[in-house]
């Protein structure tokens, strides 16, 4: 699907913006998913869901051939409302449980908003202005931050 890889070249955007938006409506919509990878596996658990975390519907099922099938929990999805390039407060929460992620919001692959997503409740906040096309977000923490999302 050549369009996905080439549409954001500046020359293509300048050539025919309306055509870019029309073609973007055909593009698949990305969604944010949570997968849970079990770390401790017992063969006695064959056929069972190995995910015991209370805050997710993601599953991991051990099969008799010793493969594990993962099914994700979709935490952000919607028509004309995709979420890409997720970022967290890595300085304080890398490798630790976190609540917020920030992403570039897409309207059919046209980046036109910034989104904040609570990965526990799935609540979202959106910044968007007419004719504004942001790039991927980078979280910069306030120097004296006490809260995860203070930045």
From TrEMBL:
Its EC number is 3.1.1.64, 5.3.3.22. Coiled coil: none annotated. InterPro entries: Carotenoid_Oase. GO terms for cellular component: plasma membrane. It is a lipid-anchor. It is found in: Cell membrane. Its main location: membrane. Its cofactor is Fe(2+). It catalyses: an all-trans-retinyl ester + H2O = 11-cis-retinol + a fatty acid + H(+); lutein = (3R,3'S)-zeaxanthin; all-trans-retinyl hexadecanoate + H2O = 11-cis-retinol + hexadecanoate + H(+). Keywords: Cell membrane, Hydrolase, Iron, Isomerase, Lipoprotein, Membrane, Metal-binding, Palmitate, Sensory transduction, Vision. It comes from the Eukaryota. One of its GO terms (molecular function) is all-trans-retinyl-ester hydrolase, 11-cis retinol forming activity. The keyword Nucleus does not apply. GO terms for biological process: retinal metabolic process; visual perception; zeaxanthin biosynthetic process. Belongs to the carotenoid oxygenase family. This is Retinoid isomerohydrolase. It comes from Dicaeum eximium. The lineage of its organism: Eukaryota, Metazoa, Chordata, Craniata, Vertebrata.
